[in-house]
Amino acid sequence: MFKTQAKDESGQVSTEQIVGFFKGIIEVESKEDKANYKMRKNMLIDNLVEMVQRISREKTGKEILFKIEQLSDAMERRKFESELRKIDLSHLNITKHLANLESDEILKRSLLAQTKCIVRLYMISAYDLSSRDNGSPSDPYLYLTCNNKIYNERSNYQLDEANPDFYKHYDFEGTFPGCSPIKIDVWDYDDIFGDDLIGTTIIDLEDRYFTMEWQALSQKPIEYRQLYHSSSSLSQGVVKCWVEINPVSVDPAYLTLWDISQ
Ligand SMILES: [Ca+2]
């Protein structure tokens, strides 16, 4: 590890090496501001919860079993949402508002816990793929990697197609924090001269997992992602896809497996 030596700015011999990068949150604030913020936040949460419980009492005669601390748990969040549906409040995005208000605490808890998740990537289509063949469009296929798991769709390449449809989903396992990004490579199939990479896009999963606003979305947004190749600064095409991340502890009954097959 310390075999190589280099001189630093002061001319001293240094054996320092970069062996990794730190990713984290740094809070700078005054004690007073923090106390005020906490008080205001708790008041908003209490009011919101009280409103929900009042409506629940009126509609069903009982309160919803719910604790704000449970919002960091994806399973509990879904249970709470299904209770809100029963009293016709699902359209108000209450879970999302509560999760936003409580996001600092939820984030702290989820950063301290190791959560094993299923990462589900829905690949819809790609378009405007640049050609890697002389005089004809590429013959594209997907090559997907995440945490050492690989999906190689080489045998499903699509002949002369700059705008291929995929309509398939792919599951990966990952533990948060620490999950690697998903790497989406689109390759051009070529039996004679060898396959060529058309382009790559990388989806950061931790950014999504640790963003409460993203977590609270029951339908994750479709992403249009540009593909890039090291040989050019220009986009080599676009893939259309979306990602879902759910703890393995979540009961599949609470998860929707979207049917995107044609
Ligand atoms: Ca080809």
Automatic annotation (TrEMBL):
Compartment(s) where it occurs, according to its Swiss-Prot or TrEMBL record: Membrane
Q: Which SMART domains match?
A: C2 (SM00239)
UniProt-listed InterPro entries: C2_dom, C2_domain_sf, C2E_Ferlin, Ferlin
Q: Provide the topology term for how it sits in the membrane.
A: Single-pass membrane protein
Q: Which residues form the C2 domain?
A: 103-219
Q: What GO terms fall under cellular component here?
A: membrane
| GO terms of biological process kind | plasma membrane organization
Cited SUPFAM superfamilies: C2 domain (Calcium/lipid-binding domain, CaLB) (SSF49562)
Q: Which PROSITE patterns match?
A: C2
Q: Does the keyword Protein biosynthesis apply?
A: no
Mark the transmembrane ranges.
none
Mind listing the UniProt keywords for this protein, alphabetically? Membrane, Repeat, Transmembrane, Transmembrane helix
Q: Does the keyword Membrane apply?
A: yes
Q: Which PANTHER family match?
A: FER-1-LIKE, SPERM VESICLE FUSION PROTEIN FER-1
Provide the protein name.
C2 domain-containing protein
This chain's source organism reads: Strombidium rassoulzadegani
